[in-house]
Amino acid sequence: MSLIPSTNPFNVPKPWITIPTELIGSLPRTTALLEGQLAYKAGHISLTQLDRLQDKAVRQTLLELEKTGPGQITDGEQAKPNFLAYPIAPLYSSSYSFDDIIDCFTITFSDRHQRSLPRLTQAPFRYGKYAVDYLCRAQQYTRRQIKQAVISPSALSNVYPRATISGYSRDQFLDDLVNETEKDIRLCLELGADIVQMDFTEARLSLKMDPSGQILKQFIQLNNRVLDRFLDNAAYQYKIGVHVCPGGDRDSHHSLDVDYSTVLPSIFDLHVSTFYLSLASERDRKKCLTIIRTFMKPYHRIFLGVIDPNDARVETAEQVCDRVLEAARFIPIEQLGTTDDCGFSPFSDDESTTRSKAYDKIRARVDGTRMAERILNSRK
């Protein structure tokens, strides 16, 4: 008979640890909405008619997402023109210009297609649309917790022209930008968003712009100016996360060729407790996980990408489970979450992935996460 006392003499069940799983944001637009967008651009339908189509697409998307399993959901960004420029798109005609395309901030993807931001021509900088409007619409059609994505100030900082605007310095612009981004986040939290995710896809891209890392450092400092405004509210701070990825659009990336290990350490300088980090598309996941383990703090929640939206193949639940179990060797289960590497359709005209395939991938993420959760809890 053993004289060693049992560490659990009364066989009290250990608490079950849930691994949360979340959608990043966007889904391919419905067929009716895609057709409506083209009709609106051609002048065949009114803005009111387009708005009705967007409303119907949001409602349909929420109903479909509810069927994929538990967890937070988004509106699929059905009504957003894109994840990047939604705050300024309504002001294009009055305050922005694409005329000097050479001076515009342009992102080139691996298949050579490009996306550009216009240049600000009219001061002061302001938002023409806040993310809370999308949240408000979605809340009408679901009782589930909703996650709302917002764009980072570092991304929108690229609309300021190389030549300064007369009477409106870059410092003045950045002050206005920080104020507007804070408002974008705060309004969502006040309306009841369960999570507000700041999209920081330009983090990795910045090392293409400047391999020295100075632009990345400036981007992080700018984003922290916004994040620091929520430090006095623990509840709000807990609900803010930052998403980092190599950019995904039309099944291609803009910065997957940038060594992730040169970016990840700096990401943890952000004053935030939740991170959404792409991982499924990486060739050396263990190297990335080792870096994450080194730089993460005990209060961080790390959502790791276990689905690659740009991969035409649909992952199986078993593949997702294996990726979660791999990650759990580096990250405590209490701090682990799963997500997709990126949105499935960050720009509204992206039809590279079908909605049905996106849902198949989401179900694989949810089922695979639950599978890994059962295995890890049984090992405790």
Automatic annotation (TrEMBL):
Any Pfam family matching the protein: Meth_synt_2
Gene Ontology terms: biological process: methionine biosynthetic process
InterPro entries: Met_Synth_C/arc, UROD/MetE-like_sf
Cross-referenced SUPFAM superfamilies: UROD/MetE-like
Molecular-function GO terms, alphabetical: 5-methyltetrahydropteroyltriglutamate-homocysteine S-methyltransferase activity; zinc ion binding
Superkingdom in the source lineage: Eukaryota
Residues covered by the Cobalamin-independent methionine synthase MetE C-terminal/archaeal domain: 20-351
Protein's name in the database: Cobalamin-independent methionine synthase MetE C-terminal/archaeal domain-containing protein
Originating organism: Rotaria socialis
Lineage of the organism: Eukaryota, Metazoa, Spiralia, Gnathifera, Rotifera
